[in-house]
Design goal:
Shape of chain A: globular
Strand order of the largest sheet of chain A: 1-2-3-5-4
Strand content of chain B: 25-35%
Structural class of chain B: alpha/beta
Number of strands of chain A: 5
CATH architecture of chain A: 2-Layer Sandwich
Radius of gyration of chain B: 12 Å
Shape of chain B: globular
Helix content of chain A: 25-40%
Helix content of chain B: 25-40%
CATH class of chain B: Alpha Beta
CATH topology of chain A: Heat Shock Protein 90
Largest sheet of chain B: 4 strands, mixed
Number of domains of chain B: 1
Order of helices and strands of chain B: EEHEHEHH
Structural class of chain A: alpha+beta
CATH architecture of chain B: 2-Layer Sandwich
Oligomer: heterodimer
CATH topology of chain B: Transcription Regulator spoIIAA
Number of strands of chain B: 4
Distance between the termini of chain A: 22 Å
Largest sheet of chain A: 5 strands, antiparallel
Radius of gyration of chain A: 15 Å
Number of helices of chain A: 3
Largest interface: A-B, 26 and 24 residues
């Protein structure tokens, strides 16, 4: 398992994506799945950066491992206010443009992109974990 | 991300090269904000875009809302990965993708 700790700041987005996609280097992960993972990592990390700590600052820890079965498991941990992004109802994706909700799309895309996601609040920490098979 | 704009009468073609993500989408939004006056046809060329996150979708939604009041907006050159994102979010129903 590998991990990095970064300050929860959107300017660290590229660093976080690079860190996670290292896991896919040399694997046979199709580009399509790689993009889905990258977008999911962006959505979750940006949510933490925008909502976990402000107006204060804080850190986010990102860990990943790839199982023998070819599943990548990525976990995001922060010590910000307790928040379960998966508890939110899905946005209405059938509304006409003028009534489209702007919020909630990122989490929705992530749920659709990944095979599994779950949230825990343990010892004052939000832990959001997601999994996806990288074997196409 | 690179943005190229080409105006021909009331038609504006915006060619984007790169990722439309949380960090780059404010630039696209600002470019659009300053260019849509008098435009009745907005064409995006996304041939060189391989990544759109929800931040990019927000910019496209706002552009679509603006163009709905005065003309039309078309997105061209989308890869399958892009169309995937548009489809799972229901954006394929409100955007015109050619």
């Amino acid at each position: 398992m590998k991990s990095i700790v970064v300050s929860a700041d959107i300017n660290n987005l590229d660093r976080v994506i690079e860190f996670v996609t290292e896991a896919l280097e040399g694997s046979e992960c199709p580009v399509r799945i790689r993009r889905q993972i990258e977008i999911s990592v962006e959505e979750v990390f940006v949510n933490i950066a925008k909502y976990a700590y402000p107006p204060k600052e804080g850190d986010a820890t990102i860990t990943y491992e790839v199982t023998a079965e070819g599943v990548i498991r990525i976990a995001f941990t922060d010590k910000g206010m307790p928040y379960d992004p998966l508890a939110k109802p899905d946005p209405d994706i059938t509304a006409p443009a003028k009534d489209r909700p702007i919020g909630g799309l990122g989490v929705y895309i992530t749920k659709k992109n990944m095979d599994k996601m779950w949230y825990e609040y343990v010892d004052g920490q939000n832990i959001l974990t997601m999994e996806k098979s990288i074997r196409g | 991300m690179k943005i190229n704009k080409e105006q021909n009468g009331q038609t504006l073609t915006v060619t984007v090269d790169g990722r439309i993500d949380t960090l780059t989408s404010p630039k696209l939004e600002a470019e659009l904000k300053s260019s849509l006056e008098g435009i009745t046809e907005l064409i995006f060329d996304f041939t060189k875009v391989d990544y759109v996150s929800s931040a990019g979708l927000r910019v496209l939604l706002n552009a679509q809302k603006t163009m709905d009041t005065k003309g039309e907006m078309v997105i061209t050159g989308c890869s399958e990965d892009l169309i995937d994102v548009f489809e799972i979010t229901g954006f394929a129903d409100i955007l015109t993708i050619k």
